[in-house]
Amino acid sequence: MSDAVAATVEWTPEKRRAYFARERAGIDASTRLPVLTFFAASVFWLLVGTTLAIIASVKMHWPEFLESFSWLTFGRARSAHLDTMAYGWTAQVGLGVSLWLIARLARAPLRWPRLLVGAAGLWNAAVLAGAIGVLGGQMQSVEWLEFPPFVAPLLALAFVVIAMSALTTFGDRQEGHIYVSQWYLFGALFWFPWLYVVANVLILFQPVRGVLQASVNWWFAHNYLGLYLTPIGLASAYYLIPKVIGRPVYSYYLSIIGFWALAFFYNSAGIHHLIGGPMPAWLITYSIVASVMMLIPVGTVAINHHMTTVNHFRLVLYSPTLRFIVFGAMSYTAVSVQGALQSLRTVNEVSHFTHYTVAHAHLGVYAFFTMTMFGSLYYIVPRLTKWEWASARLIRLHFWMTAGGIMLYFLSLTWAGWYQGQMLNDANVPFMDIVKYTLPYLRTRSIAAVMLAVGHLVFAYLFVLNLLHRGEPRRDPTILGDVKEYRDMIGSEGAPQ
Amino acid sequence: MSLSDQDLMPEPEPNEMDPSKQRRETGEPFNVQDLHAPIIREQAEPRDGFEPVPPWMSIFYGILLFWGGAYMALYSGGFRPDVYNEKAIYFGKPPGGADEKADPIAVGRRLYTVNCAACHQASGQGAAGKFPPLAGSEWVLGSPSVLGRILLNGLQGPVSVKGETYNGNMPAFGGRLKDDEIASILSFIRQEWGNSAPAITPEQIAFIRDAVGSRSDPWSADALQSLPAEELPGGDAAAKEENSSTEGSTKKESSGGT
C-alpha cells in the first residue's frame, strides 16, 4: 500500500493489526519453501553429526569399538562429526533463520525462493560429498577445513547465491529503521564468504608458508563461530526476545556498542589458539587482548538482553522459544567470559591440548548457538507450516535432554581437562596415569552425548510431525506448563509463543 | 479515495481446520483466510528502547581498555616479527639487529666468526706459516686506509706480519659485505685480543671504496705501503689521534719489517 493510500485510511488498532498480520503472512509465504528446505536438511545433518559424535566419543574410552571399519576410525569420525555439524547443521539452520529474519525485518518478500532451494541443494550435495570424502580418507589435515578441496568452491558458490538473495531482499525493505538484528545478519552474510574463501585459498589452493598456515587456520576456525554463528545467534535472540515478551529492546546505544565491539575485536581473537607456538610474541599478545576485550560486546549484549527480559522471566516456564533462547543467551555470556580467561597465557598453559578446550567449544557451538537455533525453530516453523507443535511434553523432553546433556558434557570435560592439564605440566606424572584419570569423565561425556541424541531425535520427530500436519489441531500455541495459568498471566494482549 | 476493510483483507474463505477461525467468531473486524493463528496472535515487530549506557559500564570498559593497552605494551616484544618470547621487555631498545647496530663491536664479532675465523681463528692468532695473526698485527693496528683496502679488494703475495712472512691469498670482501659491516669487522679486530686502536666508521670505508674505484685485483703488500696519505672523513678526535700516533708508529714498524 502506498503512503498516499495509507494516509487516507482511518487506522484503528484493529485495522493496523490486521494490516500487519496480512503483510507478515505474505512475507512468510515467500520464505516457506527455501527456509523449510534449509531447516529439514539441517535437522538431517544434526542427526548424522550426533551419530558420528557418539562414535567418536565412545572410541575415546573403548578403542576397540568399531575398530575394523577404517571409515569410522577416531580421526575420521571426529572430523566428520565436526564438519557435518559445522556445515550441515549450524551453517544451514543459520541460513534458514537468517533468510526468514531478513525478509521479516525488511517487511519485504524473500527474493528468488526457487533459486534458494537450488542453492540449498548444491550446499547439501557439497556437504554430503565432503563428509564421504572425510570418512573415505580424503581428509585435509586442517581443522574446520577437512573437506576435500573440491568442496570449497561449491559451498562458496551456494553461499554467494544465498547471500545475494538475502541482500536483494534487504534492498527491497519497506522499513526505514534498520533493526539491530539486521546489522548482525548483514555482517554474517559478508563475513562468512570472506573467511571461507580466504582460508581455503591461503591453506589449500595457494598455501602460504609454514606457521602462517596455522595462523590463517585459527583465524578462520575461530571466526566461523565468532563472525558467522555468533551474529546469527544474536540476531535471532535480539528479534525473538522482544517479540515473545512484547517489549522494546532495552537500549539502542547498548546494541551499537555490542555490535561494533564484536566486529572490531572478534576478528583478532583466533590466534590465541597458538599460544606457546612459534608465532611472533606481538601477534599472540594482540589476540589475547582482543579475546579479553570481547568482554565488552558480551557484557553489553548480556545487559541489553537481561534488561529487556527482566520482570518477564516467568515466561520461560511457558514459551519454548524463550526458554531455549534464554538458555542460549546465558551460555553466550558464560562461554565468552570463559574464553576471555582461557586466552590468558597462565590459564592457557594448563587448558591447552586438554579436554577443557573441547568442553569450551561445545559450550559455544552447542549451549549458545544450537540452543538459540532450537528456540528460533520453535517460533518460526509453525508460522511456515501453519501447524502448531504436536506435543508440549516432547518439547519439555527435548529441552531437558539437551540442556541437561550439554551441562553434563561441559562440567565433566571441564573438570577432567583442568586436572589433565595440570598433570601434563608435571613431568613426574606418568602419561598413562593421566589417561586413566580422564576415563570416567570420558564415559560421562558419552552418556551426555546419548542424552543429546535423545533430545535431537525428539526434536526431529516433532519437526516431521509438524511438516506433515500430524497431531490434534490446536487453537492455542503449544505452551510448556499449564495453559490456564499462562492465559491468566498474559491477559488478553497478544500471545508470546 | 478511501479504503474499506475489504481492501485491507480479501474475502473470507472458511477453513474448518484453521484454529484462527475463532477470531471471526469473537467478532474481530478482519478476515483470516491465510492468517493462521501464530501470525495473528504474534506481537508487533521489535522496537528499540533508548535507555542510556550505565556509567559504571563505561568505567569498567575504560579499565578494560587500559589493561589491554598496558598488556600490549608489556608483552609485545617491541612488535618485532622475530621476537617470540613475550617476556622480553625492550622499552624501545629491541635486541637483535637494531641493538647490534648500536654496538658495531657485537656485529663485528658475529661477522668475524662467519667470515674470518676459519683462517685467522677465533683467537685472532692465525695459523703459523699459513695465515697471519690479527692480534698485535701492525697491519690491523695501522692505517685504516690500508686495512680497509685489504678487506675491500683482498691481498696477494708475500706479506710480513710481526716479523714473519706469509705468502697467502686474502680474498676480497668488498662485493660481499656492506660498508657498515666491513667497518664493524675492522673495529672489532682492532679492539679484540688486547688490540686497542680506534674504531673505523662506515663513512671511512665508503670513502675508501670510492677512492679504490672499480679496481678488482687484489693488493700487494708493497702497493699498500706506498699509498699516498689520505684524509679520511670524520675528522674527529679518533681520526686525529690515529694520524698522530698509531699510524706514524705503524709506518715505522712496517718499513722496518720490509
TrEMBL record, chain A:
Transmembrane segments: 33-56, 86-103, 115-138, 150-171, 183-205, 225-241, 253-275, 281-303, 315-341, 361-381, 397-418, 447-468
A GO term, aspect molecular function: cytochrome-c oxidase activity
Keyword Protein biosynthesis found: no
Gene Ontology CC annotation, any one: membrane
Domain Cytochrome oxidase subunit I profile, first and last residues per copy: 44-497
Cross-referenced InterPro entries: Cyt_c_oxase-like_su1_dom, Cyt_c_oxase-like_su1_sf, Cyt_C_Oxase_1
UniProt KW keywords: Electron transport, Membrane, Respiratory chain, Transmembrane, Transmembrane helix, Transport
Any one GO BP annotation for this protein: aerobic respiration
Protein name listed in UniProt: Cytochrome oxidase subunit I profile domain-containing protein
Species: Kolteria novifilia
UniProtKB/TrEMBL annotation, chain B:
Residues that span the membrane, as ranges: 56-74
Xref: PROSITE patterns: CYTC
Annotated InterPro entries: Cyt_c-like_dom, Cyt_c-like_dom_sf, Cyt_C_IC, Cytochrome_c-type_DH
Keyword list, A-Z: Electron transport, Heme, Iron, Membrane, Metal-binding, Transmembrane, Transmembrane helix, Transport
The keyword Iron is annotated on this UniProt entry: yes
Region: Disordered, residue numbers: 1-32, 216-258
Pfam families in the record: Cytochrom_C
Cytochrome c domain location: 103-193
Superkingdom, taxonomy of origin: Bacteria
Gene Ontology MF: a single term: electron transfer activity
Skewed-composition ranges (Basic and acidic residues): 18-27, 238-258
Protein name, as recorded: Cytochrome c-552
Natural source organism: Kolteria novifilia
Lineage of origin: Bacteria, Pseudomonadati, Planctomycetota, Planctomycetia, Kolteriales
